[in-house]
């Protein structure tokens, strides 16, 4: 496995890389969710590359950026274990050189949910992924369904900017108790960690009400909120039942929909979702 630090190293190595080329963009602190993306990429690619870059532009709170967990040695060992061919782990200045002055801003699909709760977040995501897609020129790039809105934003960006990389969404990997794996889980206290599976329970309560025939989106939101209310450490930020294609909040659930939520446990913010229909 080769670790590349600069755009020019990347260009040189990739020009000779066997195709198809599979890309797994990450911010490091790798866990089994990232590993699942790497395995899928490996299964479908002749060359597999991960990127490790904590992107300052997608953090709307600077404390969150500073506290984001980092351990490059451990991350590189995981990439090696997963049999990746290449890792691109650039500095901030390599991704955003002096004079960098462009923002990629996706429209309607980036506005609600995480876009509303974290102003500027998706501008940062779309901008860095556009840069990575352009630098790598992968045939396919692999993302987690755990960040369902992110997948939709990136698909829209790639389509609109005529970037030919295919965006592949992979299932959410969970702990045995249902908590979605996340680099942020490391910040949970033991009590908060014990409480955190309530996100999954609440999403499944929403799904169960829909499966029982409920079509009022407010009633499905109510089922999710009621499950969250059973956990005093959980402070819901939003609870959403949205159109699965546009992410607009629904009145009636009569097609594909996305149940999603953001919940704070102290200063740690967790998100999860469940597609239905
Ligand atoms: P991050 O390093 O958090 O930016 O995540 C890098 C990629 O891994 C993103 O496409 C995430 O959606 C994906 N990912 C994060 N957590 C999980 C998970 N629990 N299961 C599947 N994919 C995940």
Concise synopsis of the structure shown:
By secondary structure, this protein is an alpha/beta fold. It has helices at 7-15, 32-44, 62-67, 72-81, 92-95, 114-117, 121-136, 148-160, 190-195, 198-211, 217-229, and strands at 2-4, 21-26, 47-52, 86-88, 140-144, 166-170, 235-243, 257-265, 268-276.
Helices and strands in order, then pairings?
Blueprint: E1 2-4, H1 7-15, E2 21-26, H2 32-44, E3 47-52, H3 62-67, H4 72-81, E4 86-88, H5 92-95, H6 114-117, H7 121-136, E5 140-144, H8 148-160, E6 166-170, H9 190-195, H10 198-211, H11 217-229, E7 235-243, E8 257-265, E9 268-276
Parallel strand pairs: 1-4, 2-3, 2-5, 3-4, 5-6
Antiparallel strand pairs: 7-8, 8-9
The structure holds adenosine monophosphate (AMP).
Describe the structure in your own words:
The protein is an alpha/beta fold. About 40% of the residues lie in helices and about 20% in strands. It contains 11 helices and 9 strands. The chain has helices at about 5-15, 30-45, 60-65, 70-80, 90-95, 115, 120-135, 150-160, 190-195, 200-210, 215-230, and strands at about 1-5, 20-25, 45-50, 85-90, 140-145, 165-170, 235-245, 255-265, 270-275. A hairpin with a 2-residue loop joins β8 and β9. α7 (about 120-135) crosses α8. The N and C termini lie far apart (about 40 Å). The site of adenosine monophosphate has 17 residues, from α2 and β5.
